[in-house]
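Structural prep section.
Before we set up the soaks we want a predicted structure of the protein with cobalamin in place, mainly to decide which crystallisation condition to try first. Input record follows.
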Amino acid sequence: MKVMLIRPKPHRNSLGLSDLMTCEPLELEYVSAVVKKEGHEVAFVDMMLEKKTLKYFVEQHSPDVVCFTSYITHVNVIKAYSEEVKKVNSKIVTVVGGVHSEVIPEDFKDENIDYVLGINGLENIVILLDALTKNEEVKFKHDKINKDYILPMPDRELTRKYRKKYDYAYHVPCALLKTSFGCPYNCSFCFCVEITGHTYYERELAPVIEELKVIEEPNVFIVDDNFLVSRERIQTFCKLLDENNIKKTFIIFGRADFIVKNPDMIELLSKHGLDAVFVGIESFKQSDLNDFNKKTDVETSEKASEVLYKYNVDLYAGAIVGPDWDKQDFKDFVKWLKKMHIRFTNLQPLVPLPGTPIFDDYKDQLLLNPKEYEKWDLTHLAIMPTKLTPTQYYHQIIRGYFNTSTSFSSVWYIYKRCGFKVAFKCVRGALKMYWHYVRMEWEYRKVGKYERSKEKKNASNTTNNI
Ligand code: B12
Ligand code: SF4
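Run finished without errors. Recording the tokens verbatim:
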């Protein structure tokens, strides 16, 4: 069969981060590998990077099956794409896979979407294509996640045309690697653990190293939800890097408590190319950390920054800004980040993503319509702030960014490390991000004015009635 794989373009109302980073679509390289192995023909279109319409590519390739990968922000985009595909030829089979469809498959119920693969996507796509080829009934593996499934070598040739454009902020160019699934912790806001049904499992390191041997890019973003879990695994990983003479720089996700308890592992990883750790420090308030079931404390975040900087590893801070923060909280938070010498931070309002435990806690107070999936991009306000207006709240987030990730010293740091071109790209990306925030601010100003005029009208009507 002729199979076409599509990475969707972010919706115009989402912050897709693509101006700052466009990562390799590793998930579709895996899909391509399993599909090609079964003898099917594969074409790939990265709609994040293409200017032409999907219709153009569908007409050009005339596929039998079109497959999409999905995040929450893509739901409406994929529905529109599927309609476009069916308009070209209603016989083309449309299929959705990817993390959001694995946790909430029902979100993709649509007359133009034929199959939603759910969990075990790589096995289910093979089952589906086989059934379609033989014109038989499809029997998906939906009962439980198959943790013993062995990932194939991803088909990195699939993305040859686009590879030079794949990066991660100032890590240019950058490849992706996945060595484990899930995380042993259970933070209440975390969607990642829902993907694996709250279990953590690892790949064998031998095939991981085989992947690394053929990755051409000097930078590798290890997209494990938590790479810092086992000392033994880290030691073996570094030993295998040495034995195979692999020299790359790595960006990983890890927890502050592991870093503090295992500084020797950070030293070891630093000697093997560790460049930066994305740490979910979340908040400077212990009460927030407790509410999130983070199982760590504020002091540990501070100590983790000391360990990382001691071994010349950058700390990218992931922060969740609470709906009850006031101006002083934002000021104190930025002061705290500066005290820890944190240059780069991701300031995210608390967004109770559907599928997470906190979604139920907040479902009656949502500011976002659950059907406006594109706005669930972790930048739009999902819950009404209690001490600031939405406009003031966004303003504080923008100020927070001005004082951290896009401060003069951060941009200067990128310039010194990577030169003018990369620094310019990051500044341009950051400006576009600011524009997105300004648009959101305006949206709320408009809503605010409308609400106020409605209130005034109601008040005057009430007065008239009296
Ligand atoms: C790296 C990353 C990014 C990269 C982009 C990565 C990429 N490949 O494009 C960057 C930093 C740019 C990014 C941006 C965003 N991200 Co992000 N990201 C991740 C992260 C950490 C890893 C994703 C990854 O590359 N995994 C590697 C691949 C191989 O694994 P996989 O995606 O699980 O795919 C497997 C299966 O799902 C399946 N599969 C996937 N697609 C398909 C399709 C078919 C047809 C089939 C058969 C199978 C299949 O095959 C794979 C093999 O097992 C995840 C966390 C996570 N645990 O998923 C968050 C995550 C996916 N991101 C998320 C979000 C919300 C976003 C943003 C919207 C907002 C933001 N501020 O982060 C933007 C949107 C970007 C966009 N493209 O529009 C959420 C998604 C939540 C949801 N309900 O959908 C996650 C889960 C993190 C979170 N906070 O909860 N992200
Ligand atoms: S430590 Fe990170 S990956 Fe693990 S559950 Fe908490 S937020 Fe999710």
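Observations: The two ends are 73 Å apart (CA to CA).
Flagged for discussion at group meeting.
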